[in-house]
């Protein structure tokens, strides 16, 4: 842990702005469905993640309208899918890919020019322990993020949030820390803590949530976002996340997981990983709420009963 600066991210960025920035208080969403988000991949235009499929699935889930996905790249085929979703009312949490900051800022501004108000949060790079950041010629060591050794990531976050903080279009959008590790070090740059939770069937969910509350406090925040929570039905007992469960058990566990998370005021939003499954029987292809043929799994009805 390192010493914390005497000012918050908002105070620092406000002082840097051309005109003084006065943030609105970050308020927790009030309804259950507004606190639910799903992982999507609108950039994968060759997959089932097409506009009509996504909107049909979100409606079957009770009308969920928050999606977490990679930031949009202007000029790519997926751009139209992002725009179509936003025009249908979807609000995005964009996970930063770590590419050129000026290009990312420009693309987000271009996106908001077409669909104003469609970005509800920006999130730091995903799992930088497993996907080490390279920035300004420095590459973080693999797993360095877990032990506080991620100088490239910290430099990137500092520079990105500084650029965001002086931009009149983007500066009011909340920033979510990268997940789980170095939450104290990310405090100057973030508004919400972040975790990924993939419980085993035997996990004590209340203990996992209590651990997240501790991480949030370490980052000097009052709330956090669970940007990935999943239960796979594929793979074997040697899975990376947890052993597979049956479709019926996935429905039972996810519905009780979500109910437990939503009962905690420190959980701003929980994101389910992920909307669609992929073909095959592997662990990573079978987290979806919908099958690869777009049919709803039992988890859809179970979750809908909890959030609507």
Stated plainly, the CATH topology is called: TIM Barrel
Uncertain residue ranges: 1-7, 10-29
Number of strands: 10
Radius of gyration: 19 Å
Could you name the CATH homologous superfamily?
Glycosidases
Shape designation: globular
Distance between the termini: 41 Å
Strand order within the widest beta sheet: 7-4-3-2-1-10-9-8
The amount of beta strand, in percent, is 5-15%
Organism: Novosphingobium barchaimii LL02
Protein name: Calcium binding protein
InterPro entries: GH
Overall description:
It is built from nine helices and ten strands. The protein is of the alpha/beta class and 308 residues long. It has an eight-stranded parallel beta sheet with strand order 7-4-3-2-1-10-9-8, covered by helices on one side. It has a two-stranded antiparallel ribbon with strand order 5-6. Strand 9, helix 8 and strand 10 form a beta-alpha-beta unit. The N terminus is likely disordered.
Task: Note the main attributes of this structure.
308 residues; alpha/beta; TIM Barrel; eight-stranded parallel sheet; two-stranded antiparallel ribbon; 9 helices
Can you lay out the helices and strands and say which pair or pack?
Layout: H1 9-16, E1 36-39, H2 51-60, E2 66-70, H3 78-87, E3 91-95, H4 101-114, E4 119-123, E5 134-135, E6 138-139, H5 151-165, E7 175-176, H6 183-186, E8 193-197, H7 205-218, E9 224-229, H8 247-262, E10 267-272, H9 298-307
Parallel strand pairs: 1-2, 1-10, 2-3, 3-4, 4-7, 8-9, 9-10
Antiparallel strand pairs: 5-6
